[in-house]
User: What shape does this take?
Amino acid sequence: MKLTFIGTGSGKTRIDRFHSSLLFSIDGFNLLVDAGDGVSKALLLANVDFNSIDAILFSHYHADHFGGIASLFTQMKLHGRTEKLKFFTHKSLVEPLVNYLNSTYLFFETAGFEVETYGFEFGEKFEITNDLNIIAKQNNHVKNSHGLPTENVSFVSSGFLFETGGKKIFYTSDVGDPRDLLMFENQKIDWFITETTHVTTADIQTAVEILKPAKVFLTHIDEEDEADLINWLSKINDGKYILAEDRKEFLL
Ligand SMILES: [Zn+2]
Ligand SMILES: [Zn+2]
Assistant: This one.
């Protein structure tokens, strides 16, 4: 399994990091996790053929994780895609995805390639390939905190446990509070990919002590936090921590 960081920035657009997006490549199958604003350009820079992406999984619909999907879908059309594309998102977010694409004049019926959507349930294990399963759990990142009357908006966001080749990877995506770092506490985690914008370095260190992963990847890096993160990493001086960079690849 190869993990490529396509984008490692936070919700604030920056020059030197794209918004956060990951690519899992397993036996020729490519799963893109999130497709935020600018993802098409990020993929071009990473030398990833748009049409080599077999499936796209969404954690939530903030612009830095979702806002690039209309453009990416357009690129697939413009590049003459013929292979099927699969979308995986929470079951309550399938309809909003279709409506969003339709509102940009994109329709599955006229894409020129087959499109399949799968709406997962929280806690359910769903299969992406024979060698890639995922469990999604709801975290506290997205809330209707102002109690707005938004019946048509689904306030859900996911953290993911990926299982491949007998290994487990926990990707927090965006979290709401430190408890979200421990949603798979009872699992043996090999790789821990954590965001760094909505939690402190102390929260991350506590989670690492509990989860005991072999590797810790720090991503969703805000420009304002980066110097502090580098300083913190130099102090803990533990080789298991890696500050993610766009286009960096890792083999599991
Ligand atoms: Zn984000
Ligand atoms: Zn978010």
Q: What stands out?
A: The chain has one domain: 2-251. Residues 2-251 form a domain with the Metallo-beta-lactamase; Chain A fold (CATH 3.60.15.10). Residues 223-236 form the longest helix (14 residues). The chain has a mean pLDDT of 96.
